[in-house]
Structure formats: C-alpha cells, structure tokens
Design goal:
Layout lengths: L4 E5 L2 H9 L7 E5 L4 H6 L5 E5 L9 E3 L7 H21 E4 L2 E4 L4 E4 L2 E4 L2 H12 L6 H9 L9 H17 L5 E4 L2 E4 L1
Parallel strand pairs: 1-2, 1-3, 3-4
Antiparallel strand pairs: 5-6, 6-7, 7-8, 9-10
Length: 187
C-alpha cells in the first residue's frame, strides 16, 4: 500500500473520478467531509496532500482545483509533482536537537535564525550526526576530505573551529560540536 495519500475535501465529483482510476494511480485517494476535517488536521500528515476547491488558511499542503475543465492526465501529473516536491522537501531537512539542517540551501536553522554552511561544514555535521560516539580527526580527514591519515594537516581542526565560531556567534551555542579526548561529537 502506498503511503502517499491524496485527500479530497468536500469535492465528491473529483473523488468519484479519481476513485475510478485508483488502480492507475501511485497514491491512495480518500475523501473527507467538513465533519472530519479537524481529525485529519490533527493527525501526522507528512505524506498527505489535501485537494480543495477554495483556499483554506487552516490547511497546509493543499492543492486548489478550481479551474475546470482540466484534462485528468494533467491533474494527476500535478498531484504527482506536488508529492515529489513534498518528499524532496522532507528529505532535505534533518532535525538535530533544537536545530534543522537544510541540505538544499546548506543552512543550519534554529528559532528563525540561520547560518549558511559551506559544503564541508555540512559534510562534517552530517558525518558526526551518523554516529553517537566521538569521531577522530583522522577518520574525518579520511571520510570527509578523502585524505590519507599519514598527512600532517590541521584542516579538520580549522574547519571545526570556524564552524563552532559561526554557531556561537549566531546561536550562542558553544556545545553544538564538542571535543572529546578521542575526537569530535555533536552534543
């Protein structure tokens, strides 16, 4: 069963058409009435899109279908594109404690404040995030930069120093990346 769900709100004609085509669609189609709207809005609906005839301010992720007639293939294509956009957006943001990292814009965000990250800074954070243990400088050199461990370089320390400085300046957080005796770790 597909986890993507297209919810038709108070639009029975559209539901009937899509329901006839359900075997050809790559998403589930359901309908709701005004009585069930509050229930749908209170549920975790990260894979849902709601189709309405008129814009409703209390509904996120809605598609307004009011310019009729429209070819059904174009309408289904529009739904598929919206599902793809939603999935892409969900995959691009990773929650890290009080922070979110947006991989598309390479930004670290918290409480409406954000900092731009370099590609290496994003890579450092993501690599440290994979593990719940401190990561050595040598491992970061090897896995993030692709350096041989025999090389004498302070690249890792310099990048982490600059990243910590940015985070401290904007978020006033000196403990996002902590130093342990055997490496670095995200707190």
């Amino acid at each position: 069963m597909n986890s993507q769900k297209l919810i038709i709100y108070d639009y029975i004609e559209l539901f009937n058409i899509l329901n006839e085509l359900k075997s050809e669609l790559n998403f589930e189609v359901t309908k709701i009435s005004k009585n069930n709207l509050s229930k749908i809005l209170s549920e975790d609906n990260q894979n849902n899109l709601i189709v309405t005839q008129k814009k409703m301010s209390e509904i996120d992720d809605q598609i307004i279908v009011s310019n009729l007639p429209i070819k059904i293939a174009k309408l289904v294509e529009k739904f598929n594109i919206e599902f793809l956009k939603k999935k892409f957006g969900q995959q691009s943001e990773i929650k890290i404690g009080y922070y979110k990292i947006n991989l598309n814009s390479r930004e670290l965000i918290s409480n409406k404040k954000k900092i731009k990250l370099t590609e290496k800074e994003s890579s450092i954070i993501l690599y440290l995030l994979k593990y719940k243990k401190p990561i050595s400088i040598e491992e970061l050199q090897s896995k993030v930069w692709g350096y041989q461990s025999e090389l004498e370089t302070h690249t890792v320390e310099t990048h982490i120093y600059r990243l910590r400085k940015k985070i401290l300046k904007i978020f006033n957080d000196a403990n996002f990346i902590i130093s342990k005796k055997n490496g670095y770790q995200i707190s």
